[in-house]
Amino acid sequence: MSGAVTLSRRLLLERPLAAPDGAGGFSQTWETLGAVWAEVVARGGREMDGGVMSLSAAKYRITLRGAPMGAEQRPTPECRFREGDRVYVIEAVTEKDAQGRYLVCHTREEVAS
Length: 113
Fold this sequence. Notes:
The structure is a single chain. The protein has one domain: Thrombin, subunit H. It has no helices and six strands. 0% of the residues lie in helices and 66% in strands. It starts with 8 loop residues before the first strand and ends with a strand. The chain is mainly beta. It is globular and about 50 Å long. A six-stranded antiparallel beta barrel has the order 1-2-3-6-5-4.
């Protein structure tokens, strides 16, 4: 994972919020934490059985500028990225280098067809 990083895609970083549903339970909504510039690289994909519909899941490696642990702009596995109608679910976050200049987010995009 060495080499130049090209941060050319603008993504929104979102985190889940539990909102009361009015019936004593909660529903999940998403709060936008801000925009980040990233490099998005496809890593493979597969088709899955989604019951009544077919699902395809593609894996992506998303690289962005580093942020310190605990910073609001540092992605975590419960967060996701949004690019228009596309949603990238974050599965894991690692640092690209020992200095933490870049973060690598291992993500999955699911598309129903």
